[in-house]
Amino acid sequence: MLKEPIFPDNFTYPFVIRSCGGLSDIYLAKQVHGHVLQSGVESNIVIENSILDMYIKCDGITDGHKVFVEMTDRDVISWNSLIYGHIKLGQMKRARDIFEGMPEKSIASWTAMISGYTRIGSHEDALHIFRMMQLTGVKPDWISLLSVLPACTQLGALELGKWIHFYAEKNGFLEKISVCNALIEMYSKSGNIDQARQVFDKMLQRDVISWSTMIGGLANHGKAPEAIKLFQDMQKTTIKPNKITFVGLLSACAHAGFLEIGMKYFDSMEKEYNLNPGIEHYGCLVDLLGRTGYLNRAFELVNNMPMKPDSAIWGSLLSSCRTKGNLELAVIAMEHLLELEPEDIGNYVMLSNIYADLGRWDGVSRVRKLIRGKIMSKRTPGCSSIQVDNVVQEFVSCDDSKPFSGEVYQMLDLLALHNQTKDVFL
């Protein structure tokens, strides 16, 4: 176009700039920006927003800031682009400062912040922003519900999840497959598998994520026959299972001890669906062989895997060794775990229990000395969360910083005393 020569105008540049952003090439972005400045085209908010968005997509947050500061006029799109740029880089504190300074916020602004906090694992902040959005009178759309549901899932905020379910149903958002999928996952991981199944059964359309999430949820709740039956129902549809589907299916077989069925489905991955099993699928198979007492076959599988076994696989084998009382393989599994995760105290306790079950008190003594060693000094504290009065409280082991910690510990002491007294009378 330039060689003709035909010079671009205000209608041409936004498309060129958008295409440049799609390539994520910061050097090309600067060249196009320079061309716009040299062309003498009258500046307007559409072109300036396009340039700002281009820099954000090219990870040029510094250049994007310069464009934002120099803009003669800004709208909500300008602010949202800058916020998204910082969220994309994980800079939530900076994004929050810009968000707080916005003269006007759109639903996209709120949703971006919720998604950003969820993305970095700050689930409490995500719920806080969601509540602030509601208090300001902004009605959530289906995208904002998708953004907040993972936070509900991680924090176990079941009551809020139920409210979102009701709100989604009332506003017709359950027609969106992705919303239903998120609800199924939320209910499954919050312990309400029956409610998850109700959402699944009412879906008019399902994708592979719907089936995989439901099968995995049933497997995790010990409902192996139902998970297998659901997979068989899936096979009657036009939707093909993926690798995640088979993780749930094989996990169900492992928990139920269905050896032949599990082996058959594992083999079908390549033969029927052209899916190469990953390390998670081999892990399920090792677990299945171990649970059904075929420890030598499990060990042989571990040694012949096409990839290097990880700590989850060796840990699964170690657990099976305790169940079946196989000290020889337990020691081998522990040797590998020492290389992969030397600070995990659970592996040492498991090995100590195996020695104890076999009456090998010399082995118990040696392992306990290791537990007391310096290698155990760096322990990750346990934590849990609970929702009370629509507020999620997180508790960390040995942390008494909360204002109500004293009352909590007093109640725990009373419960412990009650149990001791009960044991005496029994």
Structural key phrases:
globular; two-stranded antiparallel ribbon; mainly alpha; 69% helix; Serine Threonine Protein Phosphatase 5, Tetratricopeptide repeat; 426 residues
End-to-end separation? 92 Å
Mean pLDDT over the full residue set: 89
Helix coverage percent of residues? Answer: 55-70%
Number of strands: 2
Give the radius of gyration: 28 Å
Number of DSSP helical runs: 23
- What multimeric state do the chains show? single chain
What is the topology, as strand order, of the major beta sheet?
A: 1-2
How does the overall form come out from the CA principal axes? globular
Uncertain segments: none
Biggest beta-sheet profile? 2 strands, antiparallel
The structural class is mainly alpha
PPR repeats: 75-105, 106-140, 176-206, 207-241
InterPro entries: E_motif, PPR_At4g14850-like_plant, PPR_rpt, TPR-like_helical_dom_sf
GO molecular function, one term: RNA binding
Keywords: Repeat
Description:
The structure is a single chain. This protein has 426 residues and is mainly α. Among the domains are: 1-104; 278-379, Serine Threonine Protein Phosphatase 5, Tetratricopeptide repeat; 382-426, no CATH class. It has helices at residues 13-23, 26-39, 45-57, 61-70, 76-88, 92-100, 107-119, 123-135, 142-155, 158-170, 177-189, 193-202, 208-220, 224-235, 243-256, 259-273, 279-291, 295-303, 311-324, 327-340, 345-357, 361-371, 405-425; strands at 383-388, 391-396. The chain has a two-stranded antiparallel sheet. α7 packs parallel to α9 and α15 (243-256) packs antiparallel against α16.
